[in-house]
Write a structure and sequence with these properties.
Blueprint (H helix, E strand, L loop, with lengths): L3 H6 L5 H6 L4 H9 L10 H14 L4 H4 E4 L7 H12 L3 E4 H16 L3 H4 L4 E8 L8 E9 L3 E8 L4 H11 L1 H16 L7 E8 L6 E5 L2 H24 L31
Parallel strand pairs: 1-2, 5-6
Antiparallel strand pairs: 3-4, 4-5, 6-7
């Protein structure tokens, strides 16, 4: 299992890059291809999600990636110095409140009769790489949890874990594209037909009572995701070949007419998970 930093720096086309290219190729290049790119500063929500992932999926290596700052008072000089010393380690600093909340989330997952079983056997943070022609970047992905069957389990934190709320998040963030992409990578790595590989989301709310939901992903949703990643990968490869990563197109502004960016939104009740 490699660290997050080493994985993200490894050359390869990730599902995140294929989601970003739907915005514009230039955004994708800047964030995932540019050799001089800098690591993106994570939002508070992203940092907390990373913390929960570590405590659920890889608790044994928690101390390698995180530094707990439970009693540091940053309003004092001594506290500021202690905080700076922790920051210098390169680890993600976690406050006592964040840590206690994340532990409550872990307990909620462990109490769930279905979610808890999904993480009992398998490999966490499984990195998969599929090589291609020498002139193309390889395909890469990092699966939250890979069960022996094989079956893919993705862990998500959310403010709303209801079916309707999470389905909106799926389309807003392109989770269905990622799910289908991961299934393709597992298929190529194991030789298992894609339709024999199941996929499920475990979603947990970040506010009390830390409700947990499990959503097996339907073949219809995965088919939509596959169509998206195939289209966006073809676009990525074309940009890579020509080294041309265009920005927004020049087009007339018409009221009520969307632009050229594919949208991930879903109409109410349109697709089942």
């Amino acid at each position: 299992m490699s660290s997050n930093r080493s994985y993200f720096r490894r050359p390869g086309v990730s599902s995140h890059a294929l989601i970003e290219i739907a915005r514009t190729p230039l955004h994708c290049w800047s964030k995932y291809v540019d050799p001089a790119r800098e690591d993106e500063e994570p939002t508070a929500a992203m940092r907390f999600g990373t913390l929960v992932h570590a405590l659920v999926l890889t608790p044994a290596t928690f101390a390698d990636e995180f530094a707990l700052a439970d009693s540091i008072n940053r309003r004092t000089k001594d506290g500021q110095a202690e905080w700076a010393a922790l920051a210098a380690t390169g680890k993600q600093i976690v406050t006592g409140k964040e840590y206690r909340t994340a532990l409550e989330i872990v307990k909620a997952i462990q109490r769930h009769p279905v979610a808890s079983g999904l993480f009992r056997a398998g490999e966490p943070e499984k990195t998969l790489v599929v090589e291609r022609e020498p002139h193309r970047w390889p395909l890469k992905g990092r699966v939250d949890w890979l069960n022996p069957q094989p079956a893919i389990v993705e862990l998500k934190t959310a403010t709303d874990a209801s079916r309707e709320g999470f389905l909106r998040a799926v389309y807003r963030h392109g989770y269905h594209l990622s799910a289908a992409y991961y299934r393709m990578l597992v298929s190529r790595a194991t030789g298992t037909p894609e339709d024999a590989i199941s996929h499920a989301f475990v979603v947990v709310e970040t506010q009390r009572p830390y409700a947990v939901a499990v959503y097996p992903t339907s073949e219809r949703l995965l088919a939509e995701g596959r169509e998206l990643w195939e289209t966006n990968l073809a676009r990525f490869d074309a940009c890579w070949t020509t080294n041309d990563w265009p920005s927004y197109p020049v087009e007339s502004l018409e009221p009520g007419v969307g632009g050229g960016r594919p949208r991930f939104e879903v109409e109410e009740g349109e697709v089942e998970l």
